Amino acid sequence: MKDQYDVVIIGGAVIGSAVAYYLAANPDFDGSVLVVERDPTYLKAATSLSSSSIRTQFSNPINVKISQYGSEVIRNFGEMMQVGDDRPDLGFHSGGYLFLASTPEQVQILKENHEAQISCGADVVLWDRAALANAFPHLNVADIELASYGRSGEGWFNNTGLMYGFKNKARSLGVDYVTDEAVAVGRDGDTVTSVTLKSGAVVEAGTIVNASGPRAALTARMAGLDIPVEPRKRTLFVFDCAHTPEGTAAVNQGRLPLMIDPSGVFCRPEGRFFLTGCPPVEDPAVDWDDFEPRYEEFEEIIWPALAERSPQFEAIKVVNQWAGHYDFNTLDHNLVVGRHPVVRNFLFANGFSGHGLQQGPATGRGVSELITYGEYRTLDLTEVGYERIVENRPFLEKAVI
C-alpha cells in the first residue's frame, strides 16, 4: 500500500470491487486505486448473505436497464474476469421470476410494471389464471388474477463468485487491496483529501468512493455528509420438501422460477432444496453486528403462505437459516449512485436495498465513468443520483421485494 492514491474505495465487497475492476480495465483511466476492506472473509457482508438473484421485473426503466446489463455481465463473466487459466463460473440458473397478483391494486401494478419492462425490451409475459395453472400445475391459483413471468434474463447465481471475480480481476490489473478499516476522512472545504485507517495509516486520496454497504452512513459521516441508509435485517430459510414440485413446470424444461406470492413470501429452488423468505412484519434498523435470524418468520408467515399456495409445500422442514442485512435506503428503497453535489470528489454507491448484486455491474461501470470522464458514457444513472436525497425527492420503485 502506498500513501497516496488517485481513488480510494471504502468497502471491498461486490460494489467496491466492481468499481475497482471497471476503473482498472478502462484504458482511459491511468490512475491508482486502493480498496479498503475491514473484513476480508466477507462472512457478514451483504453480498455473501444475500439470495443472489437477478430480475428485470422492475417498475422503473432505469432499474430494468441496470439489471439487463447485469444479466449480460453474468452471461459473459468467465471471459471478462479470466485471470490466467481461471475462468470463474457463476453457475447461473435461468429460472425466471414469477410475480402473483390477487388484488386489483396488485394487478394494476403488474400491468404498469409490464409496460415499463416491455419498453426496455425485457422478455416478460403476463398470464391469466388459466395460463398460470397450465405452466405451473402444482400451484393453487384460485385467488390469482394475474401473473408476470420472466422468460429469460432472470434467475440466480453464485453471489461470492461475482464478488471474487471482480476482486481477483481488479487485483490482476493493478488495484491494491488492504485489510483495514476507515475511521476518518480528511476534508478541506468542499474537497475530501484523505482516509485515516484504524491501523493509523493516512492515505491521501484524489477521489473517495463510499461502497460501504449497510455501513454507508458511517462512512458518509466521516466526511461530514449524510445518506439515509441503515441496516435492515432479512432472514432466509432453506427447506426440504417431501414431495418437491421441481420438474413439474410446463415451461423452462420443468424448472420452477423464483415465485413472489401476493403475501410477499418468496420461494425458489436451491439445488434439491428451496430458499425462501418474507418481508418482516416490523422492519426497524438493527445494529450493524446483529445477525440473529428471526426464526419465527418461517412458522408464522412463510409456511402458512406456501402451504396455501401449493399442497406440495405442506410437508416441508427447515434445514438451514441465516440473517443478512439490506443497505436500506429509507427515502425510496433505491440505489444512490453519483457525486455529492458540493463535495464533488466524494462519490456514493449505496442504498441498494437488497438489489446490490444484480445492480453491481452497472454501478461499477457508471461510477468508473464519472471518475474517468466526468460523465456517464453508457447508461445514464443521473435519475438515481444524490441530488434527490438533498431535495427529499423519492425515486419510487413499486417492485421492491
UniProtKB/TrEMBL annotation:
Gene Ontology molecular function, alphabetical: oxidoreductase activity
InterPro entries hit by this protein: FAD-dep_OxRdtase, FAD/NAD-bd_sf
E.C. designation(s): 1.-.-.-
Biological processes per GO annotation: mitochondrial respiratory chain complex I assembly
Residues annotated as transmembrane: 7-24
Residue intervals of the FAD dependent oxidoreductase domain: 6-370
Keywords, sorted A to Z: Membrane, Oxidoreductase, Plasmid, Transmembrane, Transmembrane helix
Any matching Pfam family: DAO
PANTHER family in the cross-refs: FAD-DEPENDENT OXIDOREDUCTASE DOMAIN-CONTAINING PROTEIN 1, SARCOSINE DEHYDROGENASE-RELATED
Any one annotated GO CC term: cytoplasm
Protein name: FAD-binding oxidoreductase
Class of the enzyme per the UniProt entry, highest EC level: oxidoreductase
